[in-house]
Design brief:
By secondary structure, the protein is an all-alpha fold. It is built from four helices and no strands.
Length: about 80
């Protein structure tokens, strides 16, 4: 479980950095939830990560972000990434 949590923490950090770089509205619910979980040390919500990466990919068109949100969505659907 620690490995998954570490990966999710890393993905959360990346999503927050990319959202800043791409100029996404930081008041969007999914970015607020990610920032709150970061500030409070709560586990990352995988569904929120899926939404964040979907939006990051939509805005940037970067194919690796599409792969990331699809991988996260598959893990969420299969129950592999829930903590």
């Amino acid at each position: 479980m620690a490995q998954i949590e570490t990966e999710l923490d890393t993905l959360r950090e990346r999503a927050l950095v990319l959202s800043e770089e791409l100029g996404l509205d930081r008041s969007a619910w999914y970015l607020r939830v990610l920032a709150d979980s970061q500030a409070t040390g709560l586990p990352v919500d995988v569904g929120v990560l899926v939404r964040a990466y979907w939006e990051l990919q939509r805005v940037s068109g970067r194919p690796e972000l599409r792969e990331e949100w699809r991988r996260l969505a598959d893990a969420l659907w299969q129950g592999d990434a829930t903590s």
